[in-house]
Specification:
251 residues; binds S-adenosyl-L-homocysteine; 10 strands; 7 helices; single chain
Length: 251
């Protein structure tokens, strides 16, 4: 049996209770060493076989799993954040399906949720934005043209950019060309929820300068949007003048 487990965004105690239990029970752990906090490995039992997938190919990962299966062992494949976001899990699922190996998925706290907590920000504010776009800039990995930053920026919703700190000059230009004003608030969160977390607040206009001056090349998220601004309407859900299925209006 293989369990794909979301490790959470960084802090050791942000893994789910289920994920921690699966890690404790695992005979074999394959973890994404480039991003998963290695301190999470302290949950594993003595004698657990540990592999760092940062140095492995998909084929090698599958070989480790196949061997463990043959020996009747349980494997945890530990991915950073939640594995559904840039996790490269689909290809692993398909290999396991083909081999008839049973697997399941345990969700994790994605870094975009970890970052919201660190920023004390609500991404979906009434009258500001009710949409969160999760995307990335095109780099060595292409992005479909219809999902270009310019096209997505036209919505001026909250936007969370993964894997995008290396091309911020173009990103800044595209965000503005697409529709965000230069003064739209931006936060760059380095290693959200890790002990070494750092938060840099700027605007779309000063994004590139902020990223380069602070040498933010890795493990950072760029969050764009007026959800980090001053203006918003309070929610109707908790308004005394609003009736819900649980509460009568008192006005
Ligand atoms: N599955 C992961 C994302 C993997 S892609 C998740 O759900 O969070 C790797 C990218 O995620 C990094 O380049 C960075 O942009 C972002 N990232 C992952 N962990 C992060 C963290 N703790 N703080 C900021 N960004 C993070």
């Amino acid at each position: 049996m293989v369990h794909f487990v979301g490790a959470g965004s960084g802090a050791v105690d942000l893994i789910t209770v289920r994920g921690a239990r699966l890690l404790k029970e695992a005979d074999v752990v394959i973890y994404a060493g480039s991003l998963v906090n290695p301190a999470l490995l302290s949950y594993t039992k003595e004698g657990c076989e540990i592999h760092d997938s940062a140095r492995m190919t998909l084929e090698q990962v599958i070989e480790v799993i196949k061997k463990a299966e043959k020996e009747g062992k349980t494997t945890v494949r530990l991915h950073t954040g939640d594995s559904s976001i840039y996790g490269a899990v689909r290809e692993q699922f398909d290999c396991l399906e083909e081999l008839g190996i049973d697997y399941d998925v345990c969700p994790g706290v994605s870094s975009f949720c970890g970052a919201a907590a660190s920023l004390k920000t609500e991404y979906t504010l009434p009258d500001v934005s009710q949409t969160v776009i999760i995307t990335r800039t095109a780099g060595r990995t292409p992005v479909p043209e219809r999902e270009s930053i310019r096209a997505l920026a036209s919505h001026r919703s909250t936007m969370v950019l993964f894997l995008s700190t290396s091309l911020t000059e173009q990103l800044q230009e595209d965000l503005m060309a697409g529709g965000y004003s230069g003064s739209t608030p931006v936060a760059v969160v380095y290693k959200a929820t890790w002990p070494e977390e750092e938060i840099f607040r700027c605007t779309v206009e000063t994004l590139h300068k902020t990223v380069t001056e602070n040498r933010l090349t890795k493990t950072a998220l760029i969050i764009v949007g007026n959800c980090m601004g001053e203006q918003y309407q309070r929610s109707r859900l908790y308004h005394p003048g609003f009736t819900t299925g649980f509460r009568e209006s008192s006005e």
